[in-house]
């Protein structure tokens, strides 16, 4: 008899719990598989498929079973849960893009022409920058420009 594959959301919950219980940071897990921390965190939260080798390495590090390894390799359904939009951190990103998105669009068009920034050929990074008024969160989106071709 065959059993269903563990849903990515359940695998993500198991990963998050094991990470906390083992006292590991997302950065430590990313270092273990030699991948960027933002990508690794997103993958372990269900937003990217992992290779079999990376999934197995993470599962071994966290003491998780083959069902998690299998789930981490699945293609995701990329969406955002409505309840997550109520989270203040996530909402502030939405708010920032609501306010600055139209200006960024105009500036991309002015600088590059008719096209978009890819979110597939894309890197994102986050870092802390010291500031006298309180530390700053610096988020960098680095996406390939894709021109519209007719």
TrEMBL record:
The active site is at residues 92, 95, 118. Its EC number is 4.2.1.104. It catalyses: cyanate + hydrogencarbonate + 3 H(+) = NH4(+) + 2 CO2. One of its GO terms (molecular function) is DNA binding. The keyword Lyase applies. SMART domains: Cyanate_lyase. Keywords: Lyase. The keyword Lyase applies. It comes from the Bacteria. It is an enzyme of class 4 (lyase). Residues 79-150 form the Cyanate lyase C-terminal domain. Catalyzes the reaction of cyanate with bicarbonate to produce ammonia and carbon dioxide. Belongs to the cyanase family. This is Cyanate hydratase. It comes from Streptomyces regalis.
């Amino acid at each position: 008899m065959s059993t269903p594959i563990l849903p990515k959301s359940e695998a993500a919950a198991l990963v998050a719990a094991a990470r906390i219980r083992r006292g590991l940071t997302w950065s430590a897990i990313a270092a273990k598989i030699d991948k960027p921390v933002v990508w690794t965190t997103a993958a372990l939260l269900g937003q990217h498929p992992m290779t079999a080798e990376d999934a197995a390495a993470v599962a071994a590090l966290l003491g998780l079973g083959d069902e998690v390894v299998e789930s981490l390799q699945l293609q995701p359904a990329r969406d955002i849960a409505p309840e997550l939009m109520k989270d203040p951190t996530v909402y502030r990103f939405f708010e920032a893009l609501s306010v600055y998105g139209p200006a960024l669009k105009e500036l991309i068009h002015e600088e590059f022409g008719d096209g978009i920034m890819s979110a597939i050929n894309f890197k994102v990074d986050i870092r802390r920058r010291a500031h006298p008024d309180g530390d700053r969160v610096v988020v960098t989106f680095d996406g390939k420009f894709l021109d519209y071709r007719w």
